[in-house]
Amino acid sequence: MQDKSTHKNDFGLIGLAVMGQNLILNVESRGFKTAVYNRTYSVTEKFVSQHPDKQLQGFEELSDFVQSLERPRKVMIMVKAGPAVDVVIEKLIPLLEEGDLIIDGGNSLYTDTERRSQELGGKGLLFVGSGVSGGEEGALKGPSIMPGGPTSSWKVVQPIFEAISAKVDGEPCVTHIGKGGAGHYVKMIHNGIEYGDMQLICEAYALFKAAGFTTDEMATIFDDWNNSELESYLIQITAKIFEIQDPETNQPLIDVIMDKAGQKGTGQWTLINGAENAVVISTINAAVEARILSSLKAQRVIAVNELQGPSEFNSDWDKATFVAKVKKALFASKIISYAQGLDLIKTMGEAKQWDLNLGNIAKIWRGGCIIRAAFLNDITKAYQGNPELSNLMLDPYFKDILNDSQQAWREVVALGVSQGIAIPAFSASLSYYDSYRNDRLPANLLQAQRDFFGAHTYERTDKPAGEWFHTDWPEVID
Ligand code: NBP
Fold this sequence. Notes:
By secondary structure, this protein is α/β, with parallel strands linked by helices. It has 3 domains: 11-180, NAD(P)-binding Rossmann-like Domain (Rossmann fold, 3-Layer(aba) Sandwich), CATH 3.40.50; 187-436, Orthogonal Bundle (N-(1-d-carboxylethyl)-l-norvaline Dehydrogenase, domain 2), CATH 1.10.1040.10; 442-478, Up-down Bundle (Single alpha-helices involved in coiled-coils or other helix-helix interfaces), CATH 1.20.5. It contains 20 helices and 9 strands.
């Protein structure tokens, strides 16, 4: 199956599962000569034989694969994130030469990327840790790509990545994110934001379902929303999901899908990172926890008969009012989710001195990736207008939307609470908004408690900041 010609390949890819296959077909379609390798050779054979008309060379031996590449070699790894990436890198190291580039395009943890980057740098090899978003379709037609590593390494792969990425307004949805693990880090937060977006849509669905909207009505609502400021891939596919009938039962397919959500870990990594950086990402947090709670199906099936709530759904709103209010609650909550995610990226970027450009990051999410949405244009504009913006909520455009939406948003959250509909991401977003806009939180009592039991001291409202006081609190007898 190997091409015996002396012409070298421009780009090599290791890992021919769904992402790798589609990504290399994308690279090949842009006129690059490509080489592929997979641990299980039969997968390579099958893949190459399915595409006889493509400039694709498959290899059984890794050394032959490496030798087939033009120098500096560009080898992209698309295998399961975790130890498999290290296994592949270890095998590649003795086969590569100084100046060759390894790109890890899987969902690697950014700390692993930083370690690999250091190890490979010490051996004279270049390394780029790159997030690739958009699922299998994005990989094939044009993903959003988030590469991290030294600028010199990025330059080696820049022409290929710009060629294969999605394009919006003629601009490629790829930018050099920053050095070290910045690319995989931003991809991780992107995934956390994706969790938030998906959960918020699910909560709108939960409210509509409880209020008796039919699946057809919901398909129309989401379709309409996709022609508004909510325009996004996730809103669009939600409308399509509601249109599908189950051929076996002739019911809407959505009604026969089990309500247990899976997750692969990037959402949980985002939560850990939020906690490590002391940044509130309560919407993403609620989204991850909602998936966890959904997975407790067996317990929920018991609890439904044990724990009480309102007996039937009650709302005075007519359908048009209901839809309008839920729409405002959804959009406001979505803004909060992005405000939190971007705050985390900003905080981490400053701590790591990655010199991140939030406007450019929002810009490359406009196409190719799962969270692509019209309002990313407005986020880009917000950071272009004020690169030092402390919180997205304070940008004039988003501030106006939040101020306009806040009443409906609280009414929707109140409805969910009073009617026993769990809407954790809507309510977490609203609580964040209300905490942020409040100049007197109950943390004064918290500080008093801390000083009471631990002499942690407190500042006073009538004295300059930085002066600390302690009270000799009365003794408590248990
Ligand atoms: P998987 O994550 O399912 O990984 C399967 C691939 O890894 C196969 O090619 C397999 O080879 C290879 N592999 C494994 Br498993 N262990 C290996 C080892 N020890 N040595 C060499 N190869 C090994 O594939 P995927 O879903 O295409 O995802 C690839 C990467 O892209 C992952 O990091 C994923 O998180 C990320 N990603 C996926 C998506 C998506 O929508 N699926 C989206 C964005 C990013 P084999 O054929 O020999 O078993």
